[in-house]
Amino acid sequence: MKSATIVTIGDEILIGQVLDTNSQKLAQSLEGIGIHVNRMISIGDSREEIASTLSQALQNSDIVISTGGLGPTKDDITKSVLASLTGSKGFVRHPGQLEMVHTILKSRGLDVLPINLAQADVPDTAEILVNRLGTAPIMIFRNVNGGGTLYALPGVPHEAVGAIPQVVEDVKKHQQLSTILHRNVMVYGLAESALSEKIAPWEDALPKDMHLAYLPNPLTGIRLRLSCYGGESARQMEKMEAEVAKLKEILGDLIYADEDSNLETQIGKLLKKHGLTLSAAESCTGGEIAHLITTVPGSSSYFLGSVTSYAISVKNTVLGVPSSIIEKHGVVSSEVAAAMAEGVRKLTGSDYSVSTTGVAGPGADGDIPEGTVWIGVATPKGTYTVKYNYKNDRKRNIERFSASALNFLRLHIVSELTH
Q1: How far is CA 236 from CA 208, 249, 254, 298, in A?
Q2: What is the DSSP string of 264-279?
Q3: Given pLDDT bands bounded at 50, 70 and 90, which one contains residue 365?
Q4: What is the DSSP string of 349-401?
Q5: pLDDT band at residue 342 using 50, 70 and 90 as cut-offs
Q6: Of 246, 165, 180, 173, nearest to 211 (Cα)?
Q7: What's the CA gap between 381 and 26, in Å, rounded?
Q8: Which of 116, 126, 67 is nearest to 91 (CA)?
Q9: Which of 73, 239, 301, 360 has the fewest CB atoms below 10 angstroms from its CB?
Q10: Whole-number Å distance between alpha carbons of 181 and 199
Q11: What is the pLDDT of residue 178?
Q12: What SS3 class is residue 235?
């Protein structure tokens, strides 16, 4: 299997001023064509560091992709380092990139300065892919000092990501690629350690050419990813499907999708398929549930609306939660969660509704521990509540509250549709 190293260049990345999203997009694209990314490295704007890092990467990987350091200013030194590293005897002006420099600057109403024209000057050892989104070209250096192939991309994210299709096509043209197959299963309702213990016998019995990864996320649960490297595609996929079938028998309704997905998408599919509608009443989640639901394209066909009833007065007057229930049981209680869910279901006329009331923390008054949430779900057949306690910061608690509410809703929708 071919291997790759991704190198991001720039002091702004090392000091945390800029987030490195280029490496993520590049890795995803390389994995998709059967190339294993074995390292991601971030380095500063130092000639020695750039030269030594790229030299070592080219000896250890078939493909090296660098991003950054190709701008028009004096601190962008990568191009000159690449010229030295690859034994260039000089620079040549590339006509295709030169034309693009003129086109881009003219479209922005800017003067074409000598420093801009120099963007089209490239080492004579480079092959060029014209960058149509910026002034710095995409450079390719093949078999550098007897090692791998180097692709030098601009660091500006939309330019780097925009270059990926061209890079992928070139890699496919010049490299003998292996097959990588992935099969994803989405699980919600178990901690990673508990899930690992539950499926340990199944995992231990996996075929030797099949690998399992646990990929947790507070909003989506745990994505179990089965991977097969090399071999005949149809046969490998058949083997993975057989293993997924075994996994479904073990985990049951803990699995909410057998594809890379999320709870809000799967809930949307259920509601849309059966012509059902949904509403939400949120307190401690502050509209996060409604936000997640409406990120799904087409959600307007089943999501009627929500009430963010942060204040007790809104719970009383809009959702119709009786003051007597709040006085007797407290605002963070099963009874209030149930009344909120029933209130918004009645208010909107939806088939299903979901509610949250809790303490995301910090700064709340009272004796309710931070991280406590009561979730309510009102359905055509009844109203249900559940309590969870999480030990995270405020932002993460809100995410966990919202995901748990969606999963609780999912379980009741599935239950009522199948019984």
Answers
A1: 12, 21, 25, 35
A2: HHHHHHHHHHHT--EE
A3: low
A4: T-SEEEEEEEE--SS--SSSPTTEEEEEEEETTEEEEEEEE--S-HHHHHHHH
A5: very high
A6: 180
A7: 49
A8: 126
A9: 73
A10: 21
A11: 77
A12: helix
Integer angstrom CA distances of residue 248 from 185, 224, 244, 254, 258: 9, 12, 6, 9, 9
* Separation CA 147–CA 314 (nearest Å): 67
Token pair 């149930």 is found at 338
Report the SS3 class of residue 199. coil
The residues pairing with 245 across neighbouring beta strands, listed in sequence order, are: none
* Rounded-to-5 percentages of helix, strand, coil across the chain: 45, 25, 30
Q: Which single residue is written with the structure tokens 């700064």?
A: 363
Q: How far apart are the first and last CA of the chain?
A: 48
What's the pLDDT score for residue 49? 96
364: pLDDT strictly greater than 70: no
Lowest mean pLDDT among 17-21, 53-57, 385-389: 17-21
pLDDT tops 90 at residue 32 = no
In this structure, what token pair is assigned to residue 84? 């030295």
Q: Is residue 198 within a helix (H) or strand (E), and if so which, with residue range?
A: helix 192-198
CA distance 363 to 84: 58
The DSSP letter of residue 179 is P
**What confidence tens digit (pLDDT) does each residue in 104-139 have?**
999 999 999 999 999 999 999 999 999 999 999 999
* Pairing relationship of beta strands 149-153 and 63-67 according to DSSP bridges: parallel
Our CA dihedral for 238, 239, 242, 248, rounded to 10 degrees, sits at -110
- What's the Cα-to-Cα distance from 27 to each of 65, 183, 312, 367, rounded to whole Å? 10, 18, 48, 47
Instruction: Give 304's DSSP letter.
Output: E
Query: Would residue 334 be called left, alpha or beta, if left means φ above 0 and alpha means ψ between -120 and 50 degrees?
Result: alpha
Q: Can you read off the two tokens belonging to residue 313? A: 């007065």
Distances in Å between the alpha carbon of 170 and those of 77, 153, 390? 25, 13, 48
Does the pLDDT of residue 51 top 90, yes or no? yes
Tokens of 263: 């709870």
Helix (H) or strand (E) holding 213: strand 210-217
